[in-house]
Design goal:
Length: about 160
Amino acid sequence: MNFLLITTCAFIATTSAQSTDCISQNLAVDVVAALEATLTHVGNVTQIGNALLADDFVEISDSILSLQSLPLGGVSAPSKQAWIEGISHSPADTNITTLDIGVVCPNKILWQWQFNAVGRAPYPVKGFNYIVMDDCPQIQTMYIEFNSIAWALDDGELNSSATA
């Protein structure tokens, strides 16, 4: 898999467009490829995560919080290190299909995806990441929502004879 690793803020800040311009579709594709590499555990998750995520990174996801039986409306990963640790200790998600990648000017990426192999995998899980980039550009905030009922059925957290 080829993807651009975001190496340093100083380098990218000098080679990217001004903050009033839109981020490029190519950058959006590279960011998604790097995220996918961390989720599939291709390469060094810690190294990629440290390059990809801003120091003040947070992840917000009611879908994740609901699977963890935590109150909704909070933060699902409060820091870059918490996110990297969570991904590093999770099973690799090896069958991810990108459905769409879009740029929302000036600094946002919308990644629509489908996970095809969660747990027992009777149900594909569709969702999206709404990614806010800082000026470096690194991911500052990532909002994630997905079909958490299908995910819970796939990994055995819910038992049901009904189909999703």
